[in-house]
Amino acid sequence: MYYGFNNAELFRMASEDKLVTIGDLNTFKAEVLQAIRQLVDYKPAVAKKWLKSSEVRKLIGVSPGKLQTIRKTGLLTFTKIGGNIYYDHDELMQLFENNKVLPKP
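^ that's the sequence the OP posted. Answer follows.
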């Protein structure tokens, strides 16, 4: 017995094991780094130009009333077609950039 394993279990485990070379590790490292880079650099294909009110509320996490206040105060322009209100995605992102609070030194 070796650390709670009997000889049959050890033989089965040894036959499944393979030697790992430094080259194998370098290849694995390169694959992992590439996968991490892809995750970090991921950007959605194309953001929609115009967002409905419900999409904006989900995106920034506000209630319908708060979005209406933002709209009425002129912080965010909108387009109304029929009964639907649309917001420009780029203007929404610019609103956040313009109101970013920087840490005090």
